[in-house]
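Bug #77: duplicate submission created two jobs. Keeping one. Sequence:
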Amino acid sequence: MGGSDAADAGLDTLPAALGMTFGFLGDLFMARLIRFSQHVLGGIGSFGIGHIFYVIGFLGTANLLGLTLSPIPVVIWWVIGAVGWWIAVWRGVTERTPMHMAALPYALLLSSTAGFATSMAVGDARFIPLAVGAALFLLSDLLLAARLFRNVFFPLVDDVVWLTYGPAQMLIVFSSLSVLSALQ
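Kept job's structure:
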């Protein structure tokens, strides 16, 4: 493909950059560096907006490359996300708050990201790191949700969250850059 295709692909990296930016804002909320009494809600909102940008970028890139995306991986990831939410947030909790319910659409949004990324990987192997990154992000947030909503604790839980979240973000960005460089 020619240089104009690479320039067009560069426009599709903007949603990835915005996704990372909102992810960073989510980190600031969760670390309570942004003063907000509902820091978890601020984190969920920021990360959710970031994932909307990720999905927009995925769809734009798939369109640019002429990939036909199957809905099957998205539906499979929705089931995984709903089951993960039930296990991490809902199961066994006797005092449920609106935040417990807000965690479900958030889990489904992250599952959508994983589903679209997986659909892209099925169509083009260059997106396997993207699919792995999106899956790791969902895993990271389900672990964090279990800790926040059900007080699940095991040794090094915070380290496991960071060791899944950091590589997740890196793989999402790496995929964007590797596809862009392949188009140049």
